[in-house]
């Protein structure tokens, strides 16, 4: 594997033993716009054989219009969107299915909302330098999110802490390295590839 080695941050990157070996986990790939949620999330879901849900596809049109116009979302704007994604997570949890969701989940209370009482939820936080993330956002074509919103994204970000179940990666790492390391930590002694492949539902349309 190329790229810098993966060094877990203290207290993070540990999947509690009670989550290893049981039903597949539900992963929320989180972080500010442009950090790599969609790229890493899609690839992780494909590797695990789980369904992938693109959170952006579930914003109401008013939220997309607001962000496109360079106006940051408020807690109220995010409320219904988080409820929708929390519903998908609860459904996967009930069915004991694995699931990967790309969702910024910037604030602690948003993450608590997404998790609800589903104990199999793990957050995968992609974090990095504002300048690097801005340049990746700027290089992206055909995306509604303007680089102008990067400051508000960082202002809203509440870094996950060790009392949350979090895998944390620097965005300087290649996406393939992040996926390989996360996959190994998430599956523990479970094997990937022998699970039923998640349906690619219309949720991402
Ligand atoms: N680990 C990485 N290394 C280099 N480029 C990356 C990495 N992850 C994502 N990218 C690129 O950065 C840009 C933003 O990634 P994207 O997945 O759209 O982020 P997000 O979904 O968080 O907004 C894309 O052009 C993507 O190809
Ligand atoms: O809560 C928010 O402010 C948004 O959800 C935001 O964080 C999210 O990242 C956008 O939907 C942009 O989409 P990308 O993350 O794909 O740039």
UniProtKB/TrEMBL annotation:
Pathway assigned in UniProt: Carbohydrate acid metabolism
Swiss-Prot/TrEMBL catalytic activity: D-gluconate + ATP = 6-phospho-D-gluconate + ADP + H(+)
GO molecular function: ATP binding; gluconokinase activity
Cellular component terms per the entry's GO annotation: cytoplasm
EC number: 2.7.1.12
GO biological process: D-gluconate metabolic process
UniProt cross-references to Pfam families, sorted A to Z: AAA_33
Alphabetical keyword list: ATP-binding, Gluconate utilization, Kinase, Nucleotide-binding, Transferase
Keyword Transferase among UniProt keywords: yes
EC top class named in words: transferase
InterPro entries, sorted: P-loop_NTPase, Therm_gnt_kin
Membership in a protein family: Belongs to the gluconokinase GntK/GntV family.
Stated name of the protein: Gluconokinase
Source organism of the structure: Azospirillum palustre
């Amino acid at each position: 594997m190329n790229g810098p080695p993966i060094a877990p941050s203290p207290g993070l990157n540990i999947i509690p033993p009670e989550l290893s070996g049981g039903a597949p986990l539900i992963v929320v790939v989180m972080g500010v716009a442009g950090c790599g949620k969609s790229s890493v999330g899609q690839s992780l879901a494909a590797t695990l054989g789980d369904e992938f849900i693109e959170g952006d596809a579930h914003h109401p049109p008013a939220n997309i219009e607001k962000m496109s116009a360079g106006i940051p979302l408020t807690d109220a704007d995010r409320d219904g969107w988080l409820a929708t994604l929390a519903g998908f997570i609860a459904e996967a949890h009930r069915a004991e299915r694995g699931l990967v969701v790309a969702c910024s989940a910037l604030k602690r209370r948003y993450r608590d909302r997404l998790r609800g009482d589903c104990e199999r939820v793990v957050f995968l936080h992609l974090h990095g330098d504002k300048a690097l993330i801005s340049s990746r956002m700027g290089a992206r074509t055909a995306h509604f999110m303007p680089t102008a919103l990067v400051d508000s994204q960082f202002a809203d970000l509440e870094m996950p802490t060790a009392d949350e179940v979090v895998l944390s990666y620097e965005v300087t790492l290649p996406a393939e390295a992040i996926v390989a390391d996360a996959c190994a930590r998430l599956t523990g002694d479970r094997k990937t590839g022998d699970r039923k492949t998640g349906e690619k539902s219309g949720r991402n349309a």
